[in-house]
Amino acid sequence: MSSESSKKRKPKVIRSDGAPAEGKRTRSDTEQEGKYYSEEAEVDLRDPGRDYELYKYTCQELQRLMAEIQDLKSRGGKDAAVEIEDRRIQSCVHFMTLKKLNRLAHIRLKKGRDQTHEAKQKVDAYHLQLQNLLYEVMHLQKEITKCLEFKSKHEEIDLVSLEEFYKEAPPDISKAEVTMGDPHQQTLARLDWELEQRKRLAEKYRECLSNKEKILKEIEVKKEYLSSLQPRLNSIMQASLPVQEYLFMPFDQAHKQYETARHLPPPLYVLFVQATAYGQACDKTLSVAIEGSVDEAKALFKPPEDSQDDESDSDAEEEQTTKRRRPTLGVQLDDKRKEMLKRHPLSVLLDLKCKGLAPLSLGHLLTPRSAASCSHVGVWQADAPLPTKIFCSARSQLVLTWKQQWEEDWHIQGLDHRKLSVNGGFAHQWERALPPPDGHFCVEPRAWPVFSMQSFPSSSDLLSPDSVLSCLYPGDHGKKTPNPANQYQFDKVGILTLRDYVLDLGHPYLWVQKLGGLHFPKEQPQHTVIADHSQSASHMETTMKLLKTRVQSRLALHKQFASLEHGIVPVTSDCHYLFPAKVVSRLVKWVTIAHEDYTELHFTKDIVEAGLAGDTNLYYMALVERGTAKLQAAVVLNPGYSSIPPIFQLCLNWKGEKTNNNDDNIRAMESEVNVCYKELCGPRPGHQLLTNQLQRLCVLLDVYLETESHDDSVEGPKEFPQEKMCLRLFRGPSRMKPFKYNHPQGFFSHR
């Protein structure tokens, strides 16, 4: 505030001591009025150090005067008031001095600030000039760098080497005497030579184009000739059809099949090629054909046309009249599942003839979208996606469908090759025009009887597709996919388990995948599964032989069951030596039972706990009687019969209930039938094993009953007189009976 007040103060006028009175103003007085006292000017003349000393002196004098005034007031003398007034006047003078010094200090401060501000402005101006100069320097450096880094277009041209340039270029261009010492002229000369060469090449290119046009015209002329030749060849081929049929040389039909095979998905194509090759080289009874609509197969690979423009008007009208309701989530999932499981329009049909049997037809199909992975024929990592017809799904899945005629007609059907594949592995999606990343085939058993034949209750499951194709290889029951990727694809469309769709898709058997060239390693999963011809070829012969053997064994069982249900155990002449001439016990009942009923039997617990009673097996109950003795035999028939023998569990009802748990001889009878089955196989291929086991069971019951000790207290003849010749009736503390029959001596002995 003191500095601001000092600024507002008006400059004081310097007046002399001898100034005249105000009323009498002279000319000299008037001139002196223009002279003002200026403290700003005085500051420049005064020494700040001396002002500081004056300030300290004045402060000391004020302290002294204040102390004296205080002392005088305390003493209170008569002359004290005069002295106090005198000292007060002196103090006022000192106060005026302090105020002046304060004003001078503020003026100095203001001048110092102004000078500092002017100096800062100069520094800022110099700094701005420095920045401008630095920017100009940086700009110039960039320009210099650009100039140094400049690359001419000629540097991108791959010029010929210097040796070749001086060797091939004419002297008027190379100018060796000038260019050898001047790099710039040398580069210009090399560019001129490059231009000359390019002109020559351009001229040669134009000549080649003219020659090309001439050749194209010649090709068009030849095409017209060939197109006119095609109708003539067709007429010749049509006229030769009777000759082809007469000579059994269907060239025309084979050509059509190969043309159709181009539209098969990769797995089915592998199956078609390998099956055809195997039929031509190893098995003349195997014939391969392709069924289905070729036009629909072609449509699968065509991208959908954009019909939004065509339907825009109709959509606008429908929106005005009605409101469309969006489908619910359940409906959307159903549509996705249907689209995924849509079948491919083409299928591969294999006709495999067995000796003495009607043809066995195997067909392969692929379905369009299955949510898993398949490769082509059978199963595709695929979207790829993934009978006796095999169908392939769009993403690659092969479904094997069993089409049964009497003496067998089977088909393998496949799924639409665009999206899904199912199989002894399972399904996968693949792109429309590309092979699926992974997938598999499915076998879908379906039976259509061709003509009536006598059927028996116990043989109803023998020729069912599920039973005939199941476990063709050990453990290959076709109940779950071999491709782990399928489960994730199923989860997206709400498919919980494959078993719910087996009736529609078929069983994904592993052997079907292998026929289609598909393999899904478990230890090191592959990102993409590709149909491999070597994979299919390595399994084709074995699988065809297994199919023939399976059908022949089932047909043999079918004939045997017809006799068993009438209480007759058929024994062929080749096997008569295995049994004694007279067998009293007889088979009175032979029926099929369900898997659940078998597991509930109290005398079959050992088989169930050992894991030998799977749901893929067939189960039967036999009842053998002799007098009051009744022997129940629960039979487990493996799908691989007769290479895998049936398993018998026995329960004898005579003088109480006897099983292998409470009677060692019952256990020995089971051992004779189950363990010593090789003695009963008969001539190869051993289709008489089951009936021989049943006949052996009747013989064992005779031995068991005839060797039982007779109670002498009971009068009358023995119920079971001994008719079999035995060396020893009992052996050991467990009193084991002699169940081994010795041919040709005709007696029984212990093992």
Structure, described:
With 751 residues, the chain is of the alpha+beta class. Helix content is 47%, strand content 13%. The protein contains 24 helices and 17 strands. Strands 3, 4, 5, 6, 7 and 9 form a six-stranded mixed sheet that branches. Strands 10-11-12-13-14 form a five-stranded antiparallel sheet. Strands 15-17-16 form a three-stranded mixed sheet, with no helix packed on it. Strand 6 (388-392) and strand 7 (397-404) form a beta hairpin. Helix 4 (48-75) packs antiparallel against helix 5 (80-149), helix 12 crosses helix 20 (533-564) and helix 23 packs antiparallel against helix 24 (689-706). The longest helix is centred in the N-terminal third of the chain and has 70 residues, at 80-149. It is elongated. The protein starts with a helix and ends with a strand.
Short description:
By secondary structure, this protein is of the alpha+beta class.
The overall strand count is 17
Uncertain parts = 1-24, 306-311, 364-439, 443-453
Proportion in helices: 40-55%
**Proportion of β residues?**
5-15%
- Main sheet makeup: 6 strands, mixed
Distance between the termini: 136 Å
What class do helices, strands and sheet pairing give?
Answer: alpha+beta
- Mean pLDDT over the full residue set: 77
Could you state the oligomeric state of the chains shown? single chain
Shape: elongated
The rounded Rg comes to: 58 Å
Number of helices: 24
